[in-house]
């Protein structure tokens, strides 16, 4: 992956984020790019397409894509790069058109663990999927529509001593003026989707900020954007898989004994709320795909076990850089910085799955890709979050290693990373698919 510069790659990441305001839009954008690269869509209800080449499945807001090289057998292992398509924010409740005191407001529920104050006084959009009475699904997104206005300091003189936000009382955004009984928030989404709002029978609609991603800094070294956690990993794995498939078309992914492995990109939904769904990492989606690949190659239980034993999963999710205003919150010896390369994430309690073997693999991959990397471990009094890594390792028994680019302001409505790091992650991902 030597063609794009870091700035060009990061600009494309910005375009990917802008096209992916919800997990459903992200899955659709991945599918669009895979189609353009010559991958074939696989319907879950259809017979499995076992032909060599690129394939993908979309399940709700998740997508799994894989590339089958010539020479594959039922015991060929998998190199899996896992990520997730969702981000913290707010989700529309039933009966979402609310309001009082002459305001139109949206009834929302907190999704995941957002930095609540970062969502105040920003223009927001709504996006996601609508389901109509015939069972069909429709993607929809509004333009800048909503805002969660903060209380003026004149009405809360102690606000700078500590802001407290009640999740039920203080976080319903405004989107207009008038009588809620005479308004319909869903109608605005239906208009975008080109459907009759009376036909809507279900919806999964979330908020994101309207502001576009932007490069900034003294030398243009930073990217500010929504949803870097974790669209930065989705985008990197997608770019690496497409590059891998293109190289295979030139005979570059096989050795004298046939196919080395099957490259897999797995972008799950619902990671921010525990992954316990049919499209989350706790669900059967990835296992179903891998087992059907083995089955299509003529394998059974024994071949599946051998293929899984020969497999590796890299769980790519964003991590924390040292914050210059809060350096005491970080481990005193391991101090990752923006621009220092992707992180190898380590936790003694297996909140990240990296072990010595996985660490050694990651080191070799970074050498092969000519990319520096940094180690991340939490301060002992600051318990870390987790990723899809432990869930995938537990469900499938496949060795897994946790990595990702470094961020500041993780779970903010607008996070930041170094311009150099997304391309570096993609280069290591491509090396992982190539070994």
Layout of strands and helices, then pairs:
Elements: H1 6-18, H2 23-36, E1 40-41, E2 53-59, E3 62-68, E4 78-84, E5 89-98, E6 103-111, E7 124-132, E8 137-141, E9 174-177, H3 185-193, E10 200-209, E11 214-216, E12 222-225, H4 228-248, E13 254-255, E14 258-259, E15 262-268, H5 285-296, H6 301-309, E16 312-316, E17 319-320, E18 343-345, H7 356-369, E19 374-376, H8 388-396, E20 399-404, E21 406-407, E22 415-418, H9 420-434
Helix pairs in contact: 1-9, 4-9, 7-9
What's this, in brief?
The protein is of the alpha/beta class and 435 residues long. 27% of the residues lie in helices and 26% in strands. A hairpin with a 2-residue loop joins strand 2 (53-59) and strand 3.
Q: Which percent bin holds the helix content?
A: 25-40%
Radius of gyration: 22 Å
Structural class assignment: alpha/beta
Strand order across the largest sheet: 1-2-3-15-4-16-20-18-19
Number of strands: 22
Regions with little confidence, pLDDT below 50 for 5+ residues = none
What is the tally of helical segments?
Answer: 9
Shape: globular
Distance between the termini: 14 Å
The fraction of residues assigned to DSSP E strands is: 25-35%
């Amino acid at each position: 992956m030597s063609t794009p510069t870091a700035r060009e790659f990061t600009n494309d990441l910005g375009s990917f984020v802008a096209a992916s305001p919800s997990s459903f839009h992200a899955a659709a954008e991945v599918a669009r790019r895979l189609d353009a690269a010559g991958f074939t869509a696989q319907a879950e209800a259809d017979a499995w397409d076992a032909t060599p080449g690129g394939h993908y499945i979309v399940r709700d807001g998740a997508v799994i894509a894989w590339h089958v090289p010539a020479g594959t057998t039922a015991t060929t292992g998998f190199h899996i790069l896992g990520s997730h398509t969702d981000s913290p924010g707010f989700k529309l409740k039933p009966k979402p058109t609310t309001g009082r005191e002459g305001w139109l407001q949206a009834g929302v529920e907190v999704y995941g663990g957002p930095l609540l104050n970062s969502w105040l006084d920003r223009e927001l959009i709504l996006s996601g999927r609508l389901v109509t009475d015939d069972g069909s699904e429709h993607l929809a997104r509004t333009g800048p529509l909503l805002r969660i206005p903060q209380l003026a300091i004149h009405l809360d003189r102690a606000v700078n001593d500590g802001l407290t936000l009640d999740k039920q009382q203080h976080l319903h955004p405004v989107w207009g003026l008038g009588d809620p009984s005479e308004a319909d928030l869903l109608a605005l989404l239906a208009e975008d989707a080109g459907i009759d709002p009376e036909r809507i029978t279900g919806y999964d609609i979330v908020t994101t900020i309207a502001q576009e991603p932007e490069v900034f800094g003294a030398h243009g070294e930073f990217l500010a954007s929504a949803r870097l956690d974790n669209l930065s990993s989705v985008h990197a794995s997608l770019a690496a898989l497409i590059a891998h498939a293109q190289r295979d078309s030139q005979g570059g992914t096989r050795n004298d004994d046939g196919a080395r492995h099957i490259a897999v990109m797995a972008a799950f939904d619902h990671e921010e709320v525990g992954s316990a769904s049919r499209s989350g990492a706790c669900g059967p989606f990835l296992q179903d795909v891998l087992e059907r690949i083995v089955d299509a190659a003529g394998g059974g239980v024994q071949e599946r076990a051998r293929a899984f034993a020969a497999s590796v999963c890299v769980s790519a999710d964003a991590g924390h850089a040292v914050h210059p205003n809060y350096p005491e919150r970080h481990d005193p010896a391991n101090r990752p910085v923006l621009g220092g390369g992707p992180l190898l994430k380590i936790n003694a309690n297996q909140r990240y799955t990296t072990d010595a073997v996985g660490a050694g693999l990651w080191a070799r991959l970074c050498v092969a890709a000519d990319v520096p990397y940094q180690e991340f471990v939490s301060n002992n009094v600051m318990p870390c979050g987790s990723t899809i890594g432990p869930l995938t390792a537990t469900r499938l028994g496949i060795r897994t290693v946790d990595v990702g680019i470094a961020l500041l302001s993780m779970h903010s409505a607008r996070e930041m990373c170094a311009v150099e790091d997304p391309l570096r992650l993609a280069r290591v991902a491509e090396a992982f698919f190539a070994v």
